[in-house]
Amino acid sequence: MLMTARMSQKQNHSLNNSASSSMIGVMMRAMMGAAIAGLIMAVSISHAMARPDSFADLAERLSPAVVNISTSTVVSRGTGQDVPQFPPGSPFEEFFKEFGERGQTRRAQSLGSGFIIDEKGIVVTNNHVIENADQITIFLSNEDSYEAEVIGRDAKTDIAVLKFDPKGADITAVSLGDSDTLRVGDWVLAIGNPFGLGGTVTAGIVSARGRDIGSGPYDDFIQTDASINRGNSGGPLFDMDGAVIGINTAIFSQTGGSVGIGFAISSNLASQVIDQLIEYGRTRRGWLGVFIQEVTEDIAESLGLEEAAGALVSNVTAGGPADLGKIEAGDVIISFDGKKIDRMRDLPRIVAETDVDKQVDVEVVRNGKMITLQVTLGELEQAENGGLLSGEPQTQTTSFGDLGFSAEQLDAELAGEYGLDDSEEAVVVTEVIAGSPAAEKGLQAGDVIVRFGQSRISSIDQLVKGIDDAREAERSGVLMLINRDGQNRFIQIAFAVKDE
């Protein structure tokens, strides 16, 4: 029993040693695993968190390139009181004349921000900061001031380029970065002149990309929660490398103060505009010569498209680049110069950024088939000056009860009634039933039906056949291009559902 006991103690001791060794091994492996995991996590967090311990070094390096801009403008105003009339030659006549002239004008002051992109004194700001200014003064961070002149400005993107003579002073300049590399959540730094207080630094993150705030045809704004207020307009938005990735332009606020939603023009949109303003004193944008509209789900279904994407051509300017390139109303542009058109608003911006006179491939869907056309771009500004952007009028009965309208072949009598040109064969809407699918989509008597689907309509028989074919194919509705007051627009009208 004792032996047995001794043997048990020895065995127990051996087992305990073995267990201890095993436990130590497990613990060591666990500790090593935890250490490795911690190292991986630390590396991962370090990579994900680009926020520095302080923005001080960045602010100190960049602030000298940010300027305050003061403008003054002579504006007219009334005296608020009637000036009495005196006989010619009366001594009071000259007195009240001078009094009235003084009261009719005043000098208005405004403040904004900007940034230097060239040591020669080239400054970028917003167009609205210097618009109509009679005098522009640049204040550097060291409070030195210089008179500036406008090199060029562009109202469509709200960008202006100024120049001042630094007179040999040591000037700090910054460079434009690549805004396409930005990700939502990246840290950004804004420097400007809010409320005229002088150089002010705020930090935040990129809240959203590609915002359309309805300010113009080329909206591509970076949204940030870095505090941006009145006076920040025209100032730079920096990434953590110190590159300008945006131009602070607008805020969303009901009070005029920052509520954490500010907008900056993306640097990639701004860079080409800035280069053109410096080189030409104006912009030179590409021009395609089409009027377009959004491809909705209903329109996509009517055209047999797999998805509601692209830009639907509602009209083509006669003699313009698209017309010469054989683009037609009804085509859906899905790619331009190798760039996919996901949304209608993508096309104007991409076309504008493309060089004038460049030949590009344009992919369109026509009658269910994708075709590639070659188009040589024109210049938008020349087209505007030539009055080519007002829209080209397209000369364009049977009742269609399940759609809710009636139409007739255009004749001289109808042309006189609706003020239309009867020189071409066309079909005109003569009645729209109140509360019908056609009325819900805004169809009106006097609308000229230019196309049904993607086919040209010149007779009532063509329209009847097209609608009959749509019924037989059990489509949910029809797509028509109508012309109203010289402007073309596609509308999709659903067939009324019959009560069974």
Structure description:
- The chain starts with a helix and ends in a 6-residue tail after the last strand.
- The protein has twelve helices and 27 strands.
- The model is unreliable at 1-21, 34-49 and 391-396 (pLDDT under 50).
- Among the domains are: 61-78 and 95-164, Trypsin-like serine proteases (Thrombin, subunit H), CATH 2.40.10; 286-385, Pdz3 Domain (Roll), CATH 2.30.42; 398-494, Roll (Pdz3 Domain), CATH 2.30.42.
- The strands form five sheets. Strands 21, 22, 23, 24, 25, 26 and 27 form a seven-stranded antiparallel sheet that branches. It has a six-stranded antiparallel beta barrel with strand order 1-2-3-6-5-4.
- The protein has helices spanning 2-48, 56-62, 91-103, 127-130, 267-280, 297-303, 321-324, 346-352, 380-385, 412-418, 437-440, 460-472, and strands at 66-76, 105-118, 122-125, 135-139, 145-154, 159-164, 187-192, 200-211, 221-224, 236-238, 244-251, 262-266, 286-287, 290-294, 311-316, 332-336, 339-340, 359-366, 369-376, 378-379, 398-400, 405-409, 427-432, 448-452, 455-456, 477-484, 487-494.
Count of helical segments? 12
The level 1 CATH classification of the domain at 286-385 is Mainly Beta
User: What gap, in angstroms, lies between the N and C termini?
Assistant: 99 Å
CATH superfamily of the domain at 286-385: PDZ domain
Rounded mean pLDDT score: 82
From the alpha carbons, calculate the radius of gyration and give it in angstroms: 34 Å
Topology, number of strands: 27
The CATH level-2 architecture of the domain at 286-385 is identified as Roll
The main β sheet shows up as: 7 strands, antiparallel
What name does the CATH topology of the domain at 286-385 carry?
Answer: Pdz3 Domain
* Shape descriptor: elongated
Structural class: alpha+beta
Helix percentage: 25-40%
Share of β-strand residues? 25-35%
Q: Which stretches of 5+ consecutive residues score pLDDT under 50?
A: 1-21, 34-49, 391-396
